[in-house]
Design a protein that fits this description.
CATH architecture of the largest domain: Sandwich
Largest sheet: 5 strands, antiparallel
Strand content: 15-25%
Number of helices: 12
Low-confidence stretches: 175-185, 303-319
Order of helices and strands: EHEEEEEEEHEHHHHHHHHHH
CATH superfamily of the largest domain: Regulatory protein AraC
Helix content: 40-55%
Number of domains: 2
Amino acid sequence: MATTIPAYTLYGEQTALSWENFFNVERISFRSRALNWKVSPHVHETLIQLLFIERGSVDLLLNYSHYTAQAPCLILVPAQTVHCLAYTPDSEGLTVTVSQKPLESVIKLLAPNVIKLLATPCMFSLAQMPEECSVVQDAFEVLLREWHTPSSTQTAMGMSLLTSLLLHIARISGRASAPQTYEVCSRKTAQVNKFLALVEERFRQRLAVNSYAQHMGMTPGHLSRLCRLTLGMSSLDVINRRVIQEAQRELVYTAKTIKQLAATLGFNDEAYFTRFFHKHVGVSPTLFRELAVKQMAADAAQQECDCPLSEAACWEALA
């Protein structure tokens, strides 16, 4: 039977869905050492995390992508991203956790062309960037000092410092647009962000691209061109990718039948959903689940790690 993924604020602490202003900074060893350096699969419903690994390494699962991250590196975990981590015992670094929506509001005002950075789980190596690594490390240390200096403006200051850090990361990672194209890119990004928000709200309804385009007051062709320019994929690909992502999450972390899952994703026909899933993933929903559950059972039997990070070949089949 598939398991249910737990939702936390900080790992091991039950989530408080009403929290709108949350700011925390802590050493990686503070929480991970007590867990034998292994953090099981979990999700943060409203919080985004940015991890700086300054020494050691970590096996990492972000939704359905597996990485082995070597220090020095950065890991970005947006809200609602299923993730688990298995650190080497010599690992150290810092983790910043904040409310994603307030942070997005600040980013949208200052640099809307960077907002997609906050929506994409990723790992970014700093190994070949010693000067940039030093800047990042200093920024994290400033955030840590702010956390240890309680005041009525602590959350606002934390958000401001993290915003500055994220803009720096966007710049060095090449995700920020050149200044001369900023205004044009901002308008297009704002439109695409509106589309992404609509998809997030309505992807379970299986609406056609035309319905989204009509809601946004543009033609389907124009919407698709915007998506290709900004996201590198068509508007239909964006919709289908979100459906597949949710299907994978539900298959692995819930016990819904394929028929139940198909219905919750707006498919009236279980067979059609199965063909749709196979087309985009390469295996059937049933096989996808079997492989994931088998991986979890194997890990538990070996008493290694609750997160499905070993046996890379299995996860490559799921990718």
